[in-house]
Amino acid sequence: MKKRRGAHTGLSTQAAERLRPRLEAFMASTDARARIGFDPVEFPHRYRDPRDVEVSALLAAALAYGRADLFRPKVHALLSRMGPSPAAFVRALDVAGARELLTGFVYRFNVGTDLAVLLMGMGRALREHGSLEALFVQGWKASGTLHGALAAFTAALRDIPMDSLREALGPERGLHHLLPSPLGPGAAKRLNLYLRWMVRGPDAVDFGIWKQVPASVLLVPLDTHIGRMALNLGLTRRTDLTWRTAEEVTASLRALDPLDPVRYDFALCHYGMSGACPAKTLPEHCARCSLLPSCKVGPRVVARATLQI
Ligand code: SF4
After folding, report:
1. Statement to judge: residues 285 and 309 lie in one domain
2. Ligand 1: which atom is nearest the Cα of residue 286?
3. Residue 4 has pLDDT above 50, yes or no
4. What is the CATH number of the domain that holds 287?
5. Whole-angstrom Cα distance, residue 145 to residue 217?
6. How many domains does the chain have?
7. Ligand 1 centroid to 19 CA: how many Å?
8. Among 28, 85, 127, 157, whose CB has the most other CB atoms within 10 angstroms?
9. Model pTM score
């Protein structure tokens, strides 16, 4: 097939061989445990039972948008009121319980009814399938693609009778933002982040409790930080945050590690989040960056600054 001009379908073998040792050293220098406190993954780390982990993780991932200092108290407050076992809580949750928990709840696009659908959807999945993993795997096997699996997963979670919920808590507002269905062309960052937590690992960050899904099929949770780092490292030339760009970045990461392509995600994302590699490049940051020899941007930034001295 003729390659589209400018198309970029992953790193070449030689480029991957050059980048891999630098990324490995970069990963080794990242204090993942210290960064967990700045990441919504801190919430599922409060639990030991896999069902509590998968339920608290989906709630945390779904609400992990906007400013961390604003969504974190919301997730914390909800989980605190759900008691020691979020899985037991959602399994038993009915409309009256949802009204008690969620009356007055607002976080940016989302109101109580949106959250009630998510929580009751998870409760129904646990009652009918035994785990959120089993529900996801059913859709994955039926569709054969990650996009199809996530679309089936969110559609099943949202399949909750709405009339009584609306009567108890009012109309939904940002349900599609919380739990997109149908899944569009966007990168579905928070859903892919959830999958990374559940599927890959275990290590200091990710849980690896979904054993039926291989880490090799995961897609990078693409956000502005990963998008910028991916451009810097030549993992893609695309600048939009779409599913297609996430596929292209993941194809490049797969050249580095075919079995576990998204293992670099946490370290790269937190490098951007921490301000070490800001959107507006800073020569002093680039000069001391261990990724400089592989970066498409940094050497120019450093050279320009040197000329100006
Ligand atoms: S060299 Fe500069 S632009 Fe490149 S990754 Fe490092 S900090 Fe970011």
Report:
1. yes
2. 2
3. no
4. 1.10.1670.10
5. 9
6. 2
7. 14
8. 157
9. 0.95
Task: List the one residue out of 59, 117, 124 whose CA is nearest residue 86.
Answer: 59
Rounded Cα gap, residues 239 and 110, in angstroms:
28
**Distance, CA of 199 to CA of 193 (rounded, Å):** 10
Residue 229 Cα: closest atom of ligand 1: 5
Ligand 1 centroid to Cα of residue 232, in Å, is 7
CB count within 10 Å of CB 280 equals: 4
**Residue nearest ligand 1's atom 4 by CA:** 298
Q: Are residues 87 and 172 in the same domain?
A: yes
Confidence bin at 5 (pLDDT 50/70/90): very low
The ligand 1 site (C-beta within 6 Å) comprises: 232, 277, 281, 285-286, 289, 291-292, 295, 297-298
Tens of pLDDT, residues 10-68:
788 899 999 999 999 999 999 999 999 999 999 999 999 999 999 999 999 999 999 99
Q: Write the CA distances from 232 to 12, 52, 237, integer angstroms.
A: 16, 38, 9
The fraction of the chain above a pLDDT of 90, given in percent, is 94
Atom 2 (ligand 1) nearest CA: 286
Residue 189 included in any domain:
no
Return the number of other C-beta atoms located less than 10 Å from residue 157's C-beta.
25
pLDDT one-digit tens code per residue, 142-200: 999 999 999 999 999 999 999 999 999 999 999 999 999 999 999 999 999 999 999 99
Return the best residue to mutate from 291, 296, 301, 302 for the ligand 1 pocket (most ligand atoms within 8 A of CB): 291
